[in-house]
Amino acid sequence: MAEGTTTLKGLRAQMAAAAQAQAEERRSLADNSPGPTTNAPAKPQGNRPVIDGAALRIDDRLRVAKERREEAEKQQALRDSHIMDRERKAKMQVERQVEERQKKLDEQKERRSRKIGCGGEEEAETGRGKGAL
């Protein structure tokens, strides 16, 4: 790539240079043509390069496509974040339920052991206490 014309950047630079040359030529012809002359131009004209309309359309399409992709990625990240949040909450809920069940089982064990300690093994096994018929 000695010349740099085979790359997209090189071609784009060539097109921009050609468009700039055409614009300069038009400006010089407009300055020489007879017509209403004013001391100050209505719009300040800088030395901005004139780019071909097709290149502008392509650049716009690429920009819009990139913005669309970025927006889709943000939406997907948001969805993933919501899913992970729901999963975390569900996991915490399951853990709470397991802890509650374990606590109830421990309380039942403790009550049974108290019954055995107070009234004897027969009462604990049959579930009949002193007040039972």
UniProtKB/TrEMBL annotation:
Keywords: Coiled coil. GO terms for cellular component: microtubule cytoskeleton. Residues 66-110 have a biased composition (Basic and acidic residues). GO terms for biological process: microtubule cytoskeleton organization. Residues 13-22 have a biased composition (Low complexity). Residues 30-40 have a biased composition (Polar residues). It comes from the Eukaryota. Residues 1-51, 66-133 are annotated as: Disordered. InterPro entries: MAP7_domain-containing (IPR051483). Belongs to the MAP7 family. This is Uncharacterized protein. It comes from Dissostichus mawsoni.
